[in-house]
Amino acid sequence: MPSTDLKAYMADNPGAVIEDVARERKVTPRAVIEALPSAMMRIGGGEHFAAAMQDIAEWGEVTLIVHTDDAIFEFTGPIPAGEIGRGYFNLMQPKGLHGHLRHERCAGVAFVERPFMGKTSAFVAFVNADGGIMFKVFVGRDETRALRVDQLARFRRLADHIAAQPAA
Is the pTM of this model over 0.85? Predict the structure, then answer.
């Protein structure tokens, strides 16, 4: 359970970069997500990893971000469908985004809808067993830079399906 201090900080700064707050406060990124105001986040169990990824594969162009201490990688495009095999969730396509994800290390699927840099943002964060963020998938934007209405509806429907509203 996040500390009252962290909850107060995130209430005042909901658009803060999660990884930066975690590093500065010496807590996990998951603790930072859980400290967001309850109206801005929901989280479900990691057992929903494959179902969430399969749903996201149908959304169209999104942005996937991997944020480490040393780099921030961004991929914009459709997320390929995947399948579980040989201990990984395998993104099966020859070009673009592909690879092998350690789905069994996923301990939570967080749905975050909050202000960020002056705009509303919505993303799914796949949280690992250590409380770190494996990667985030952001709802795409249209030509006016607004969140894509169709993807936002899919995001909210997926959140309703696999994530509960946290206790206040």
Answer: yes
